[in-house]
Amino acid sequence: MGENSRQAPKTGRLRGPKCWNRSRDSAKRLHNLREKDLQNADGRVPNFKPDAVAFVGYLIAHDSHRRGQISVLAHQKGYAGSEQGFLRPVGMGNTLEGMRVQALRRQAVFLLLRWLAALLFTGFFALHAVAQQSPKQQWKTLPFAIVRYNDDAPKSWNVYRGDHKGVYLVRLWKRYLLIDTNSQSAFEIDPAKVLVSGEQAELSAADIPSDPLEIAEWKTRNAGPVLRHRFRFGQSGNFLELQIPVLPNGKPAY
After folding, report:
1. Predicted TM-score of the model (pTM)
2. Is position 111 within any domain?
3. In this structure, are 76 and 153 located in the same domain?
4. Per-residue confidence at 19, pLDDT binned at 50, 70, 90?
């Protein structure tokens, strides 16, 4: 940029008056350079585009940037400048740095919120899925219970009791029925939904259909040691009789 723009040779760190002298010398050189360039007919600065006005703007921005760096460094070292001090946080450089830091903070907050939202979203649907899956209810073989089909003993059958009195899971050959003696209703159960292990069976409440089977002629009779529940499938179908042992007071044992 000319003879006046050449930098002074580096002599290591400068402190105190030497630093101020170098700063004044740099300011004087830049002042001479600006006067010389402004006197040019085309208003251009050698090796700088587009013109002298842009060069002055560059110098202001550069000086502000350095002021901001010095101010931040001074504050980090514990030197808090006064309102009239040279190192107070002013200058375009410090402003731009502050804007950059704020932008990074906003971005970090945004990423954190998005991560939390994704975590809550995933957790909500995981809990919802778990809530939708009804726990398996344990059913145990009911001792001394009897099943009769059209007044005959089926070749293969079993009766399981659950947690609620008066509700039984009946296996009739490969068919499973849920019989609710309280509401006098019967439900067809998909055999694939029943998990049998020894004397126990598992059935989820979600696998019990909402609509009962069509039955007729339900009759309940206390026959001494057992309580007989008898009904017909449909209006003219086969009969099923379920005999549940009772206590000495005449109430069902299960």
Report:
1. 0.47
2. no
3. no
4. low
